[in-house]
Each structure stands twice: as C-alpha cells, then as structure tokens.
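dude i think i finally got it to work??
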Amino acid sequence: MNSNSLSPLHEVNMLAKLADIKEEHYHQLVTLSTIIELLVEKGIVTRAEIETKAAELNSFISPPPYPMA
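look at this
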C-alpha cells in the first residue's frame, strides 16, 4: 500500500468533517445575515456603511496562497 494513499474509512471521515464544516459555515452565515438585516431595519447602520467597512477589512487580507474555487 502506498504511504500517501488514504484508507477508504479515512476518506469517509474527512468528507464527513468537511460536511460538518460546511453546515456550520452556513449557520454562521444565516446568523450574520440576520444580524445585519436587523441592524439595517432598526436604522443603526446602512447597507452602504456595511459594504464600505467590509471592503476596508477585506483590503487587509492578503490573497490565499492556494487557488479559490
């Protein structure tokens, strides 16, 4: 057996972990979207302010060293 190959069980476990991460990411995104919508509805911030701040924070992040899909 090649030392670089993964066992089928290990591959299944990795895929299950990936699915868990994706589900958690989805729930975090829904929560964040809800908070943003409530802040906008209550007049605490505007969408333009959120977009401006997001662009500002994004400018601090360097591109990842790997390709993004």
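Residues 30 and 36 are 10 Å apart (CA to CA).
im so relieved honestly
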